[in-house]
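For the sake of clarity, the format in which proteins appear in this thesis is described at this point. The record quoted next illustrates the convention:

___
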Amino acid sequence: MKTVSKWSAVAACLMVGSVWAQADEARAKKIVSGVCFLCHGAEGESSSEVFPRLAGQHWEYVAKQLENFKSGKRKSTTMVDMAAKLTSDEMVALGKYFEKMSVSPEPAKDAELAAVGKYIFYSGDKFSGVAACASCHGKEAMGTAALPRLAGQYASYIEMQLRHFGKRERTNDNAVMHAIANKMTALEMAAVAEYLGGK
């Protein structure tokens, strides 16, 4: 009898968890269709290279960025307004919603530039002291819960973020990025971004 009630309790917990997950996804879809889709697309595909692709991004990373926009740790006149009314639960729900979406990278526009970027991504630049990106972001550029997925992101967006890190205009994330981006030349930034955009 105790075994039956134990498994009934487990089943009930799983059912409640499933209901909450469905409610969170429904809430996330409503938020996306009301606001996010204008820039980031209904499935995180993004409507312009100015805005990052969110499809396939780690949910923890998305939730952290939204929280940072809301608190002002990450600066953006647009995103501070978008994140202002979001609760922590909604930020997590949005992150999980976008993480489930598939990524459709486009081939690099400049194969030679991408080849230079590939070398820097995996080997760094011993002459300028730039570390290999893969040492933190992984060989497949998939990132982690704390680090963003870079594979398939728009090249121009990655390049812009590298410039922000290099000038210390973006300060909400890992300080290591300031030290690395500060050493990168404009060519190195463009090359790495071009490689990652087509990965």
Q: What stands out?
A: The two ends are 55 Å apart (CA to CA). Residues 111-197 form a domain with the Cytochrome Bc1 Complex; Chain D, domain 2 fold (CATH 1.10.760.10). The chain is about 60% helix and 0% strand.
